[in-house]
Each structure stands twice: as structure tokens, then as C-alpha cells.
Amino acid sequence: MTFSGSAASPAQFPRDGLPEVAFLGRSNVGKSSLLNALAGVGGLARVSSDPGRTRVVNFFRVQGAERPGGAGRGDLYLVDLPGYGYSKAPRAVREGFEGLAVSYLVERDPLRLCVFIVDARHDPGERDSTLRGFLARHRLPWVVAANKVDALGRGEVKRRVESIAREVGREARDVLPVSAERGDGIEALWNAIRGAAFAPLERGRYAGQRGNDGR
Ligand code: GDP
Question: Are residues 111 and 140 in contact, defined by beta-carbon separation less than 8 angstroms?
């Protein structure tokens, strides 16, 4: 996995059409740590949690990822979207971050899956619920990565995952317990990522048109 570049505006997003999987979550939820843990599976890279990085959309290219079902290999981007919930940032700056993330989510054609990261130890906050509503309204596919499960007891993980599944996990494809620090669930998350990145595109519109032509 190599760092491909940062975009401060949509004009700077890549134009090569490779599939993209976006990472979203409140700041401090472990987004950088999770990207680093995935880099351990897909190659090497360091993702810092330098505050400057949080103002832009960062693209990390994974080269030669295995397609599901032994169908060869392909490249994809892991996309680090600005975190939200910076209480310290001035409001206008905060809204600027969100503006860029919102344009990305709404307009980005190569986007195949969102990885919505939450802290497994806590109930999702209001901003998390807002994001869930946004994803559902825009019909974006997402999985929830419930991070930091290393800090929970065994029995607790199941309970927390069930509770998250009823909140931000409602309508999600899956809720995956993970620990960026200990490595739990990273393989499962990676499988969800490459599965979505390389899945044949749904062609609902065309299917609908076929339905109308009398056959
Ligand atoms: P970001 O702001 O979302 O990019 O979060 P970071 O990756 O910088 O992590 C924020 C804090 O959470 C750091 O102190 C990390 O050490 C901690 N952290 C990240 N992942 C884990 C995890 O899996 N388990 C635990 N216990 N702490 C974690």
C-alpha cells in the first residue's frame, strides 16, 4: 500500500477509475491505526495522525490485491476522509472538512464501500447517527468497524456489537469487531473491502429498463 496523494478539492481526486473504499469516523476513533493495520495485510505504509492530514482526502493505493474467488489481482484505493467532531476547530473550518467529505461521498463514482469506524467501547454519538442517516439516505453501502475491542472482555464484545448493529449498524452490510492494535478482525475487514471493491456493479437502472420492454 502506498500513499498516492492528498486532495483538498474534488478536482484533485484520482482519475484512473480504480475502485475506492472510504474510511469515515469521529476523530480519535483509530482511523489511522486501522489503515496501518490493513497496510500490514496489503503491503506497507505509515499513516500518521498528523492534524494537517485531517483537512484533506488522502488516497492510499493497494497494489495487486487478490480478487475474491481466485479471479486474479487488481489495484484499489483506500480513501481516508477527514474525521469529524473536532471540538477545537473553528466552526467554519469544521464545515469545510465536512463539505469535502460530503462532495466525495455524494459524487464519487468509483466509491464501492464505506468503512464507518466507531469505538466499540462507547455508544455512538449524535454525529455518528447523523452520518448513518446520511449514508442510508444516499444509498451508500457501508460496514461498521467497531474498533478497540481489545479493551473489552469477551462477553462484552458480542453485547456491544449487537447494540451497535441496532444503531449505526442498521442497514449496514455488516458490523465487524476489530482491533487495530491487536489485529483482531483485520482479515475479515480486508475481505469485506476487496469483496466490495471487485464485485460486479449492480445495474439496477438497466435491469429496470429490461423489465419494461415486455420480455
Ligand atoms: P484517528 O484520529 O481516528 O486517526 O485515530 P488514531 O489512529 O490516531 O488513534 C487514536 C487513539 O486511539 C490512539 O491513542 C491509538 O493508540 C488508540 N487506538 C487506535 N486503535 C486502537 C485499538 O484497536 N485499541 C485500543 N485500545 N486503542 C486504539
Answer: yes
Q: Which atom of ligand 1 is nearest to the CA of 27?
A: 2
Count the domains in the chain.
1
Range of the domain at 163: 2-209
Scan for cell 460486479, then name that residue: 200
Please give the distance, rounded to the nearest whole angstrom, from the Cα atom of residue 148 to the centre of ligand 1.
8
Q: Tell me the CA–centroid distance for residue 29 and ligand 1, in Å.
A: 6
Provide the residue type at 63 as one letter.
Answer: Q
pTM of the complete model: 0.88
Do the domain assignments include residue 214?
A: no
Cα(147) to ligand 1 centroid in Å equals: 8
26: domain CATH number is 3.40.50.300
Ligand 1, pocket residues at CB < 6 Å? 25, 27-33, 49, 83, 147-148, 150-151, 179-181
Strongest mean pLDDT among 65-69, 83-87, 178-182 = 178-182
* pLDDT per residue as tens digits for the range 5-52: 889 899 999 999 999 999 999 888 999 899 999 987 645 455 555 554
- 139, with CB counted inside 10 A (0-12, 13-18, 19+), is exposed
